[in-house]
Amino acid sequence: MKIKKAVKHLTLSKNQVRNALTMICTSFTVVVVLLSTLDPATSLPPSFFVQFFSCTTFIGFLSALISNLPFSSQLLTTLLQIAVNVLILFGLGAGIFGWYALTLKNGLILVVFMGLVYYINDLMMTWQIRSTAEKINQAIEKRRQEEGDN
Questions:
Q1: Which of 44, 54, 83, 91 could be bridged to 48 by S-S, CB 3.0 to 4.6 A?
Q2: Each residue of 95-106: pLDDT tens digit?
Q3: Which of 112, 62, 116 is CA-nearest to residue 92?
Q4: Closest of 48, 13, 28 to residue 124, by C-alpha
């Protein structure tokens, strides 16, 4: 019985996968645009983009799985997601891929980037949820009108 509960928390619905993919693509795009805008003279190697997309994909699906865990507090879920983001970006970004040195300055820059990406992702998800809700409401209204015509 415990295994079924654990597996339930480790599976994602179509909607959760769609939301994760939106978050992954938004995160990737925002960071690439920020990097290109802030330092246009710097040319990043193609391997960076593959590595970074791997990181955003990993973060996106881990965040979706974390949101499935049965925590009693949304704050705890959010803090765990942020901790995972930091560990992945510091561990993979600085440790394995060598994108930057682990310094206080780089840490602060990373936190600012994460904040911007989190905020923009939140806006995108809010927009997507509102759009979906609007489509559902339109479908309900259409069904009501069709039932009223009968």
A1: 44
A2: 899 888 888 998
A3: 62
A4: 28
Which of 9, 28, 15 lies closest to 129, judged by CA? Answer: 15
Domain housing 54: 2-149
pTM of the predicted protein model: 0.74
List the one residue out of 59, 49, 48 whose CA is nearest residue 23. 59
- Record the tokens describing residue 126, joined without a space: 């809010």
Q: What share of the chain is helix, strand, coil (3-state, %, to 5)?
A: 85, 0, 15
Q: What is the DSSP letter of 47?
A: H
Domain tally, the chain: 1
Dihedral sign, Cα of residue 130, residue 136, residue 139, residue 140: negative
